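Take a specimen:
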Amino acid sequence: MMRNITKGIGVTAAAVAALAMGSGVATAKNGLWQPWVAPKDSNSYRCSQTIDHPKSTRVFMQTCIIHGAEDFLQPVLIVSNTSDKWIEIHGNTNSNWVLPKGERGYCKDSDLAPGARTACYGPTSRGRVGVNTADSELMLNAGTGGKVTGVTTSAKYTLYDF
């Protein structure tokens, strides 16, 4: 009996995972930094130019938009720490297609190890026909005092009505 329950739970978990993966859009929990995993199909996402943060030329960021099934889109902030020091980060994503318009995805303060990369995933929702735009903002070492400097990048993804 226990073997059948365990087997049933495993099958159910696999089915749920398959459904989540089938959308092609990450299902990361809003508010938490998660590993960046680029979609296998390079045509299913677009990213802004990578820029460095004014507080450090060894901390890089970019905004990406992931295109999943049925024209669902998700904004993502990607941060890379190429320095030899730990850094403190927090950030947010915003998009022009999310309902209610302007809803942001916030990622809380987190430490990022030297050589590490992480991502802040915004809310997933259906994109609109035409140009969809996402932007993200990164704050670096805000807890160290002084002026908090945020940097913003933008990405675009066009959906066509066929």
Helices lie at 2-22. DSSP finds one helix and eleven strands in the chain.
